[in-house]
Structure formats: structure tokens, C-alpha cells
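Lab meeting, item 3. Inverse folding demo.
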């Protein structure tokens, strides 16, 4: 009986890291498919129409995934990691893109707006998109939830494993 329990404990300790790695990779894929892929495609797009299309998909994903409220931080909550503020900034970027889309492509105003958009507004949006990513991880990531709760579980498993080994050794009179 004790050998079976010891074997099962060792197998569970060996299987846990594999399970965590699988879920970490799976969460990265889900994050890309549900959210960050749209931003990356908008960033790579050469035309305003495509940028606008992918940004609209990104905004819809943020809304659909419920990333518009709360904070992206657990402890150090601030104005910049408040999701309502990031969502408003995202919506203003979307509105700006729609305004540029309505301009004549050959006009000076269009060229100036494109330049400002790519050099200033788009380049500075990295922190904003990071906040949406952090919030997604808090809400939807198996890995993140397991990391927070799993540290306690792993400590408990380690303690149980040591105790099983000690009891096994005592039962076999090897201590």
C-alpha cells in the first residue's frame, strides 16, 4: 500500500511540470488567437484600411473578453494600469484611425496624420496593449491562475512527498 502511494506521489510530481508547460504554451496560443494577433496584424499592415480593420477586431476582442474594467495589476494599481483608461485610449486611437481613413490619400493632411499615427500614437501604444495582455492573463489564463494558486499547491506536494518518504522509511524500519 505504501509503495503504491509513494509511486503515485512521485508520478504526480513528475506529471505536474509537464501539465504546467502544456498549459503555458496553450495559453500563449489562445492569447494570440483571441487578442494579440489582431494588434500585431494591425501593426504590420501597410494600408490604413487594413490597420483599421484589424484594430476594429482588436477593440471588439477587448470588449468581448471583458478587459475594459478593473486593473491589470494586483498590487501596484495606478492610473496607467486602470483598464477603463486604457480602453478609452484604445477607442481614441480607433477613432483617430477612422478619421484618417476618411481623408484623401494624396492630401498633405493624410500624409501628416499617417506620420503622426505611426511615429507617436502607435509606437506609444505598447504599454496599453501590455495592460490588455496582463488583464487577459488574469481573467482567462489557466497558467496565470495556476501560478498564483499553484505555488501553494507545489509547496504542499513537496511537503507531502517528503512526509510520504519519511513514513515509508519508518515503515520499512530504515530510519
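The presenter then showed the designed sequence:
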Amino acid at each position: 500500500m505504501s509503495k503504491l502511494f509513494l509511486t503515485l506521489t512521485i508520478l504526480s510530481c513528475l506529471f505536474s511540470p509537464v501539465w504546467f508547460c502544456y498549459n503555458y504554451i496553450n495559453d500563449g496560443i489562445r492569447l494570440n488567437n483571441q487578442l494579440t494577433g489582431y494588434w500585431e496584424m494591425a501593426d504590420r499592415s501597410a494600408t490604413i484600411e487594413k490597420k483599421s480593420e484589424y484594430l476594429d477586431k482588436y477593440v471588439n476582442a477587448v470588449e468581448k473578453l471583458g478587459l475594459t474594467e478593473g486593473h491589470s495589476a494586483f498590487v501596484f494599481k495606478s492610473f496607467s494600469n486602470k483598464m477603463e483608461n486604457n480602453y478609452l485610449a484604445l477607442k481614441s486611437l480607433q477613432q483617430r484611425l477612422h478619421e484618417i481613413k476618411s481623408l484623401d490619400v494624396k492630401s498633405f493632411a493624410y500624409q501628416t496624420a499617417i506620420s503622426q499615427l505611426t511615429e507617436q500614437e502607435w509606437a506609444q501604444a505598447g504599454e496599453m496593449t501590455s495592460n490588455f495582455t496582463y488583464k487577459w492573463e488574469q481573467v482567462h489564463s489557466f497558467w496565470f491562475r495556476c501560478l498564483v494558486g499553484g505555488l501553494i499547491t507545489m509547496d504542499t506536494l513537496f511537503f507531502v512527498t517528503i512526509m510520504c518518504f519519511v513514513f515509508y522509511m519508518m515503515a520499512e524500519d530504515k530510519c
